[in-house]
Amino acid sequence: MGSSTVQNLLKRLKALRVQRGLTQERFAESAGISYKYYQAVEAGRKQDLRLSTLERLAKAHGLEPWELLRPGGEPLRQAETGRKKHLR
Q: Phi then psi for 76, rounded to 5 degrees?
């Protein structure tokens, strides 16, 4: 992951956790990872995450991995929304 991607992911993880009113320890437990490992992730000390870890983090927030990586958690653009509806 590129530097800005990592920074966006870290900000998003923390914002989602805080929004849900969870401590790092509580969130790590719900994601099935160790508290110390998650603490290092959120602090930016673990930047090379495995896909399986990203999947666990996303699942714990009820999201898909790509939703964690979406800059700023922006809503889908109109074109993407239309395409998604078309594919159903």
A: -60, 140
Angle between helix axes 24-31 and 35-42 (nearest 10 degrees) is 110
Residue 38 pLDDT: 97
The architecture that CATH gives domain 3-87 is Orthogonal Bundle (1.10)
Please name the residue that has the structure tokens 């509806």: 85
Q: Return d(Cα 32, Cα 26) in angstroms, integer.
A: 10
pLDDT at 76 over 90: no
- Rounded to whole angstroms, the Cα distance separating 4 from 31 reads 24
Give me the half-sphere count of Cα atoms (radius 13 Å) on the Cβ side of residue 42. Answer: 20
3-18: per-residue pLDDT in tens?
Answer: 788 888 999 999 999 9
Residue 65 or 4, more confident: 65
**CA–CA dist 9, 41 (Å, integer):** 10
